[in-house]
Each structure stands twice: as C-alpha cells, then as structure tokens.
Amino acid sequence: MHTIGQPFDTLFIVHSGFLKTVLIDEFGNEQVLSFPMKGDLFGVDGIHTKRYSSEAVALSNCDLILLPFKKFIQLGRTHAELEHAMYSVMSRELVREQGMVSMLGALSAEARVARFLVSLSERFADMGYSSKLFNLRMTRHEIGSYLGLTLETVSRTLSAFNEFGLITVDQRSIGIKDLDSLRTLRRLPPSSARSKQASKKAREAAALSRNGVTDNDGDLQVAAV
If residue 176 lies in a helix (H) or strand (E), which one and from where to where? Predict the structure, then answer.
C-alpha cells in the first residue's frame, strides 16, 4: 500500500479485504475519502503529480494485486482490452466520487447514512455476499468522516433507522429490512421517543411559565416568591 507523498509507481486492485483511503492534514486530522473493497482500484491519485496524495489503510486482512504503472502502460499498447478494462474501472471510481460530492451537498444527514447503507448493500451483492446482512468493517467515526457527519450523528441515525424498522443494528452487524425506503429516504419523521421528549419539555416549559416570566429572549426566569 502507499502513504501520502510516497513516489507513485503502482496501482492497486483489491482482490479481497477492506481498506480506507484518507487525507491527513498538518494537525493529524484524518479525512476518509473512500472504502476500497473487492474489485476496486486505488492509487490513481498519484498519476498526475507522480506522488500519492492520499494514504491507504487496511481495515481487515487484505489481498491486493499490484500493477506497476509503467508495465500497465506497456501492456495497454498491445492489449487494448486490458487498457479498456482499467479505464472503465477508473471511470467507475470517478463516477462514485462525483456521486459522493453531490450527496454531501444536497442530502440531509439521515439521507446520507441511508444512501451509504444502500451503496454498501449493492457492493456486497456485487462481491457475492449477502446484501441484507453484513458487518461494517469501518467504525462509525470513519463513516462520519466519509459522509461529513459526526460520530454521534451517525450513531443516532442508525439507532433511528433501527427504531423505524428500516434496519437492524447489533454493534457492527447491519441487517437491511427495507432497502427501497432507504434508497428514497430524505428525512425521517419524528420518532415516538422524540415526540415524547418534546411533549415532556413542553409540559415542563408550561409549568415554569405558570410560575415565572419570560425575558425578552424568550428564556424563562423564575419569579421570586
């Protein structure tokens, strides 16, 4: 695998296992860029500058196919089908990245998590695994980094999906119950728990209001007795 700034000379194809690619800033903060899985290609970010701009980190035991770039160029000149296949994979990764950018700019936090689960389900199916029950190889923090969300938001959203019967959650095990709803979800309606909590707060506010006054900002102030 490669690290940030390392001279570029090789492309990598995932034969088995799971990884993440990340950017790391000068303060050591990590931004997850992708989660390469079986059949995925990574390392292409080094082609332009001749140095890798990201770092690849294994999330499980991995088996990688190393493709020296110079050899690939040579083979492409004599084996057009190989060159076409590689460019097709590169194009797929570009389309996936564009979809990710579009999602971050247009969707709610709940919709982002939903689309992420749909994408995982489809990718597991493509790999020949179950699309309905799978283990998350990445942490909730890493999912949040990838989706532009906090760990707390990811955890809360997964719990809400579980409450509404869209998925089941058991630590890192995810069971997909309603893929179509996840695919089209924009926002969740308020949960019963949230509704109860809101009602409780409203009752508390009403009780305080009967025994106090509000200031100009709307905050309650208890009246002296």
Answer: strand 173-176
Question: What is the residue whose two structure tokens read 């990710």?
Answer: 100
- pLDDT tens-digit profile of 140-175? 999 999 999 999 999 999 999 999 999 999 999 999
The residue ranges of every structural domain in the chain are 1-106, 110-202
On the 0-12 / 13-18 / 19+ scale of CB atoms within 10 A, 220 is middle
Biggest CA–CA distance in the chain, Å, is: 92
Report the DSSP pairing between strands 55-58 and 19-24. Answer: antiparallel
CATH annotation of 110-202: 1.10.10.10
Total-model pTM: 0.76
Q: For the domain bounded by 1-106, which CATH number is listed?
A: 2.60.120.10
Single-letter amino acid, residue 60: S
Residues shown for the chain = 225
Closest CA to 69 of 11, 7, 6, 12: 11
